[in-house]
């Protein structure tokens, strides 16, 4: 069954509306006090392949609830005057997420185009797999 809106179209449309940052640029931004790197992946993925040092972990399933000050699940970090740079594994989930957050009214948001894998490839500092 072909879907009316395949996810590839959703991602392409989202990418046209959001700020995309490649891994070298994200690595250069990561140390800034006004930038927060946000990891949207599941805990299992972080355990299996590692994570960006210093990244804030926000599972994608909670993100709308964690950024909204009116939500009981609000996380104060998202109320700070910072630029939030989201990432997932390869940049698809983060594109959809940033598009959604822009729709909610967040302005200083971006995503890492190639996700965690591009960060590692570009030599970004990270913690390796759990137990490995
Ligand atoms: O993380 S992802 O880009 O593979 S959906």
UniProtKB/TrEMBL annotation:
<dbReference type="InterPro" id="IPR001763">
    <property type="entry name" value="Rhodanese-like_dom"/>
</dbReference>
<dbReference type="InterPro" id="IPR036873">
    <property type="entry name" value="Rhodanese-like_dom_sf"/>
</dbReference>
<dbReference type="Pfam" id="PF00581">
    <property type="entry name" value="Rhodanese"/>
</dbReference>
<feature type="domain" description="Rhodanese">
    <location>
        <begin position="31"/>
        <end position="128"/>
    </location>
</feature>
<dbReference type="GO" id="GO:0004792">
    <property type="term" value="F:thiosulfate-cyanide sulfurtransferase activity"/>
</dbReference>
<protein>
    <submittedName>
        <fullName>Rhodanese-like domain-containing protein</fullName>
    </submittedName>
</protein>
């Amino acid at each position: 069954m072909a879907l009316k809106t395949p996810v590839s179209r959703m991602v392409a449309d989202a990418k046209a509306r959001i700020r995309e940052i490649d891994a070298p640029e994200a690595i250069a931004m990561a140390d800034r006090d006004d930038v927060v790197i946000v990891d949207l992946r599941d805990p299992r993925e972080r355990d299996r392949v590692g994570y960006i040092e210093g990244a804030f972990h926000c599972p994608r399933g909670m993100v709308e609830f964690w950024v909204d000050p009116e939500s009981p699940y609000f996380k104060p970090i998202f109320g700070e005057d910072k630029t939030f740079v989201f990432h997932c594994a390869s940049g698809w989930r983060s594109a959809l997420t940033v598009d959604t957050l822009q729709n909610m009214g967040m302005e200083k948001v971006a995503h890492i185009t190639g996700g965690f894998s591009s960060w590692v490839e570009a030599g970004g500092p990270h913690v390796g797999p759990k137990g490995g």
